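The instructor's notes for this session suggest beginning with a concrete chain rather than abstract definitions. Hand out the sequence below and ask the class to guess, before any prediction is shown, which regions might be ordered.
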Amino acid sequence: MTTSIDLKDVTLDYNLYSVRAQSLRNAVLNMAVGGRLMRSGKDVTVIRALSNISLNLREGDRLALVGHNGSGKTSLLKVLAGIYEPTAGVVDVRGRISSMISMSIGLDAEASGLQNIRNLAMMQMMPDREIKRRLPDIVEFSELGAFVHMPFKTYSAGMMARLTFSVATQMDADILIMDEWISAGDAEFQKKAAARLTSMVDKAKIVVIATHDLKLAATVSNRVMTMEAGVPTFLGTTAEWVERSNPA
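After discussion, reveal the predicted structure:
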């Protein structure tokens, strides 16, 4: 099966309940999201996160999503990953997806690291047989050692990051979806993590990454979409984007 991503006129709205439209808090929030708050019935406020986005990606494409916080990048990633259903429009994603966003969903602070590895793997839709086969490699890569049997709540922030990263990067994916270039753990582990991420990007047929790092976007992508208030302001090749960003 050919790997592809096709979006046509995709719109995504968030409903906020019991938020008074005339309140100071709502007025401030409206400013923060670029004036995208709308009223929709009594005590319901709608945030339009994405508006009429159309996009076509084919094998070999590496798309960088660029924009400020609140521009809609993460919302678009979650639509592509199947986390959010669009309010309107058509999403057609063909290929096995590895989503490296919201990697902490499914974690249980009371459970052991080992059980959390299983939980996260199941959240990634990894079959039981595959979890058992990959478990030793995940534990070894995480460098948790005997701590893998300890409750997750006893972990340091670096240990937590190593565990979630080790699970997330075990998937064999046709489509890789990332929110920023992820770093995890101490300096030595970050070198190993960077090498694994590079390998995943090389192997994936399509990559979509949201980033604030313009240099990274220019390095890893062949296409760029810039976003503002949920609307694409540019979609083209990386060369065109670099030329546009740095006119002679």
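Then share the key points. The chain has two domains: 4-95+209-245, 113-204. The mean pLDDT is 86.
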